[in-house]
Design brief:
Strand content: under 5%
Radius of gyration: 20 Å
Low-confidence stretches: none
CATH topology of the largest domain: Clc chloride channel
Mean pLDDT: 90
Strand order of the largest sheet: 1-2
Number of helices: 17
Distance between the termini: 26 Å
Structural class: mainly alpha
Length: about 400
């Protein structure tokens, strides 16, 4: 480990704290805005009929003013791997407004991806005012991403590890752990202090251990990995079809919005619009239908694949918890435990961040589920191959080699 001088330590205490304050404040503004938009949509459900026009406005906004930031999280990962230019400050307000607009009109998207982009883009602005090297700028970007994740979810330990784990597949380097922890915890507590609304999920209290229970968790992990795989392939397929048949990027959200509105009308409700937090909370109390994860996959794949803004985290949580809840009919593990495992494992598999997501599950549902959470997240992670929701993740070691190494040990 490289020894830092007292001056460098002080610098990174300041940089980590400032990064956390900015990410926490941005997340709070975003969460308040998203809550207000969701409440307004719920009170005026007819606004969903204007989703195609909102998509056209969003597409035009990014087409004319957002070329430099349209890659989103992919741009952040690109700069972490090869730092070149400072991420434009416009990324933060553009992704915030784009995500709120998507949710206001009923797009099926998430929120944590937005918080990650805001956290990283704001943290990168510090490199304009502080003398930092290329490696130190990487740390700022990573710490900002983790801080945004932490503040939006309410899981600071997971946030610190998320920033480090998401940058590459196959190896977790803890070279900036202290800086990430500083930014993550400051962001978490500052966001809470500002009173930002966070989703509350019930703790998993009844947990027992047996050899067969681990077998059931392994089977559940396979199912969660398949669900993540299907989601990613469907989203990529929507994106590919849109690019093939709709040449102008600004019209793709319009076309996707038309299809979504028709699907909402066919389905007969707005149950799959927006975040779907009530359904996620419902999944912990009784077994849901197998159709829940299927329909959410379709709605979110159309939303994200067509160019609407937001993120995949909460939709993947919806898919995971509802699938876990449905699996409770055939797997004797209990609804709350399976829902909690699905909550973490589907996103962990899609983002290639099994460790951070296992820890997130423990922070949100209780550390007593740690062995099951680790197993479910790792099994799901291996089931997705090298697919991922974040472009520009660097694969430094194949999952096959990782798995073979586990068995050799």
């Amino acid at each position: 480990m490289i020894q830092k001088s007292p001056r460098e330590i002080f610098k990174w205490i300041v940089l980590g704290a400032v990064t956390g304050l900015m990410a926490g404040a941005a997340a709070a503004v975003f969460l308040f805005s998203l809550d207000r938009a969701t409440r307004w949509r719920d009170a005026h459900p007819q606004i969903i009929w204007f989703l195609p026009l909102a998509g056209l406005a969003l597409g035009a906004f990014y087409h004319f003013y957002g070329h430099s930031v349209e890659k989103g999280t992919g741009l952040i990962l690109e700069q972490i791997h090869d730092p070149q230019n400072v991420i434009p400050l416009r990324m933060a307000p553009m992704i915030l407004l784009g995500t709120v607009l998507t949710h206001l009109f009923g797009g099926s998207a998430g929120r944590e991806g937005t918080a990650v982009q805001m956290g990283s883009s704001l943290a990168d602005q510090l490199s304009r005012f502080f003398p930092v090297s290329r490696e130190e700028r990487k740390i700022l970007l990573i710490a900002g991403a983790g801080a945004g994740f932490s503040a939006a979810i309410g899981a600071p330990w997971a946030g610190a590890l998320f920033g480090l784990e998401v940058i590459q597949v196959g190896r977790l380097r803890l070279f900036a752990l202290v800086e990430c922890l500083m930014a993550s915890f400051v962001a978490y507590y500052f966001c809470r202090w500002l009173g930002a609304p966070h989703s509350i999920f019930p703790p998993v209290t009844e947990v027992s251990y047996s050899a067969m229970s681990f077998v059931w968790v392994l089977i559940a992990g396979v199912c969660f990995g398949v669900a993540a795989n299907v989601f990613m392939r469907f989203t990529h397929a929507v994106e590919s079809v849109q690019k093939r048949f709709v040449k102008s990027p600004m019209w793709r959200p319009f076309v996707g919005g038309v299809v979504l509105v028709l699907l909402y009308w066919w389905q007969g409700s707005d149950r799959y619009a927006g975040l779907g937090i009530p359904v996620i909370q419902e999944a912990f109390h009784h077994s849901l239908s197998w159709w829940e994860p299927v329909l959410k996959t379709i709605m979110t794949g159309l939303t994200i694949g067509s160019g609407f803004k937001g993120g995949e985290f909460i939709p993947l949580v919806f898919i995971g918890t509802s699938l876990g809840s449905a699996l409770a009919v055939v797997l004797p593990l209990g609804i709350p435990l399976l829902a909690a495992l699905g909550f973490a494992a589907v996103f962990g598999a899609a983002a290639n961040t099994p460790i951070a997501c296992a820890i997130m599950a423990c922070e949100l549902f209780g550390w007593q589920i740690a062995p099951y959470a680790l197993l479910a997240c790792w099994v799901a992670y291996f089931m997705t191959g090298h697919l991922g929701i974040y472009k520009n993740q660097k694969i430094v070691r194949s999952k096959k080699d990782q798995l073979l190494q586990v068995f050799r040990k």
